[in-house]
Design goal:
The protein is of the alpha+beta class. The chain has 5 helices and 5 strands. It is found in: Cell junction, Desmosome; Cell membrane; Cytoplasm.
Length: about 190
């Protein structure tokens, strides 16, 4: 990407595309029912960021209670949601930044800083949830933090990695814009 510059049409939209994938993963984590699930048969417990569901036996009905009744449940949901909203804002800003013909590299560095703030909020929510869930809610059987929780961590890791890339990209401004003269290592005999 640095070799051809950001004006190279196929490379220009890689960063906003990766942010868009992070937004999709965040939506899956927010809407998914698989933050915590029973690991073995009979499946008696499953939880999302918003609620905890149980059933007494294999054929019974699921009974759900909201996690918003707990202070830690509201804190975990709020911090993860703030991190997700900051990610969406970064996605919109990245589309604007890369749609402009002349790149504003300080603007791009600001997006990187905002991604780090989003990662901090996301990680706070992802740490509060399992610690308080496992200590305050009785779990039966063998349980595991499952696929939707993994999508939440994938979103947080993407925020950190893309934050580094957005912050470091302005350091290569001359190479990206093609303002560097080539140096030749030739010595005459």
């Amino acid at each position: 990407m640095v070799k051809y510059g950001l004006d190279y049409t196929r490379c220009r939209w890689i960063l906003p595309l990766l942010l868009g994938i992070g937004v999709i993963f965040g939506i899956i984590a927010l809407a998914g029912q698989g933050w915590l699930e029973s690991q073995t048969l009979p499946y008696v417990q499953r939880a999302s960021l918003w609620q905890n569901c149980r059933r007494p036996d294999q054929g019974g009905e699921w009974s759900c209670e909201s996690l918003m009744g707990y202070a830690w449940g509201r804190a975990a949901a709020a911090t993860y949601l703030v991190g997700f909203l900051l990610l969406v804002i970064c996605f919109a800003l990245a589309i604007i930044a890369f749609a402009i013909d002349t790149l504003r590299f300080n603007f791009i560095r600001g997006i990187g800083g905002l991604l780090f703030v989003a990662a901090v909020f996301s990680i706070m929510g992802l740490v509060i949830y399992p610690v308080k869930f496992s200590s305050e809610i009785e779990m039966t059987g063998i349980n595991m933090f499952s696929w939707a929780y993994g999508f939440g961590w994938t979103t947080a890791i993407m925020e950190i990695c893309l934050g580094f890339f957005f912050c470091c990209l302005p350091n290569y401004e001359d190479q990206i814009l093609g303002n560097v003269k080539p140096t030749y290592f030739y010595s005459s005999p």
